[in-house]
Amino acid sequence: MTSDHADNLWRQSHRADTDVPALSGDIQTDLLVIGGGFTGCSAALEAAQSGADVILLEARTIGHGGSGRNVGLVNAGLWLPPDEITKKIGQTAGMRLIDALAVGPDLVFRLVQEHGIDCDATRNGTLHLAHSASGLRSLQSRFRQGNRTGAPLQLLDAEETVRRTGSRAFHGALFDPRAGTVQPLAYCRGLAQAARDAGAKLFENSGVEAIAHDGALWTAQVHGHRVRAKHLILATNAYADGISGAPTREFVPVHFSQFATAPLTQEQLRDILPGGEGCWDTDLVMSSLRIDREGRLIIGGVGNVAGLGAAIHRKWADRKLAQFYPELAGTPFRHAWSGAIAMTSDHLPKVLSFGPNALSIFGYSGRGIGPGTVFGKRAARALLFGEDSGLPVQISERYSEGLKAPRAAYYELGAVMSHAIRPILKKS
Ligand SMILES: Cc1cc2nc3c(=O)[nH]c(=O)nc-3n(C[C@H](O)[C@H](O)[C@H](O)COP(=O)(O)OP(=O)(O)OC[C@H]3O[C@@H](n4cnc5c(N)ncnc54)[C@H](O)[C@@H]3O)c2cc1C
């Protein structure tokens, strides 16, 4: 087992695929999208369906970034509870964002259906699991807040949570029936294929080195070729390579890793998540839990399994599996991979205007399947049709984050410490 991107389960288990060429000449277009994740592919699809000429350039392969590495939980909102969102940006702006993202799963599952995307889409809801008594109190508060904003959440007691998860590790759960799961890389590549079918021109292995505006059009330099465009969307998020002329990276990269078993037997799976919900818990250093189509159990946690703390994160995953499902203790993990989340200090996504007809979208802070699909679609419409008010957040003219490197180190060190020290503290 290796821990690099090649060991990413999603890269091995996605089925439908197409050859996407590299850019091989100069070209001009209405809209240039840089980055082939959910945001970029959704923007390209919307633009192409609206009749615009659109080009998407991806430095590596479609879904190389967070979109091809994540847990696959299609949530109906951000990680922050509603009251914290409205406290940070005000009632009107907060409700604009909450309402826009509440329909994220509707959009995702509709696109999957309309375009026949083969991505194991399952709309059976998600479970936010209380890891402790205080975690349950926090879910009770989220439940009340969600109710006020019209979210059809259900609070489950400990016994019902045992029935739904097959685990006795939790004190209760918050069920969101709007949500679901996908095989995230397959969803991303399916979106790209849908954009292609609608007329978008996609190029992989076509990393943009520089961008500039000459007073009329944007020019992007790609390995000796030029793409000229009236409108530009920068959708590189946490995986942004340095592009000369582009805004600097203003987020803190935070790693999250996942560990997948081999497919479990029917007998082993009998009581484990029989409803197929995707889960995450209330712990400060959060864990995720789901099953894929073949019955692999996948556990995730904050930290970088491709970094210096790899051995600690791996041991943590073994212990977590035994804690959630004692009967599976010792079952080996066959895949381990990690990805970077673009975290902002207020945990809210940003849409930044950085020149004429140019928007950069980043900072989903751990929630990008529904949000990326929504933001990409609406950013394309904002640029092409002037529908700025359809964006989930207001466009910012500038944005900066302080102390990015120390804060990234702090998150990783915090995860390593938590994964290494908490079991020792519990024993003593
Ligand atoms: C481990 C993990 C678990 C997560 N779990 C969930 C989850 O369960 N649910 C959820 O909703 N969200 C989750 N997220 C967040 C979600 O995955 C991201 O928010 C989302 O994928 C961001 O999509 P994006 O299109 O904005 O960026 P990305 O998917 O990162 O795409 C950016 C792309 O830009 C390309 N690029 C960079 N530089 C250049 C360049 N110079 N030229 C051309 N292309 C370039 C990159 O190669 C990359 O493919 C998770 C994230 C991680 C890392």
Largest sheet: 8 strands, mixed
Ions and ligands: flavin-adenine dinucleotide
Please give the CATH class: Alpha Beta
Helix content: 25-40%
CATH fold group? FAD/NAD(P)-binding domain
Q: Give me the Rg, rounded.
A: 21 Å
Tag the structure with descriptive keywords.
428 residues; alpha/beta; FAD/NAD(P)-binding domain; eight-stranded mixed sheet; 12 helices; binds flavin-adenine dinucleotide
Give a description of the structure.
Helix 2 (38-49) runs parallel beside helix 8. The longest helix is centred in the last third of the chain and has 24 residues, at 404-427. The chain is of the alpha/beta class and 428 residues long. It contains 12 helices and 18 strands. It has a single domain, classed as FAD/NAD(P)-binding domain (3-Layer(bba) Sandwich). 34% of the residues lie in helices and 22% in strands. The strands form 3 sheets. Strands 1, 2, 8, 9, 10, 11, 17 and 18 form an 8-stranded mixed β-sheet that branches. It has an 8-stranded mixed β-sheet with strand order 5-6-4-13-14-15-12-16, with helices on both faces. The radius of gyration is 21 Å and the shape is globular. The protein has helices spanning 9-13, 38-49, 82-89, 91-102, 104-114, 133-148, 158-165, 184-197, 266-269, 310-324, 369-385, 404-427; strands at 27-34, 54-57, 73-74, 126-129, 154-156, 173-176, 180-181, 201-203, 210-213, 218-222, 225-234, 252-261, 278-281, 287-291, 297-302, 333-343, 350-355, 358-362.
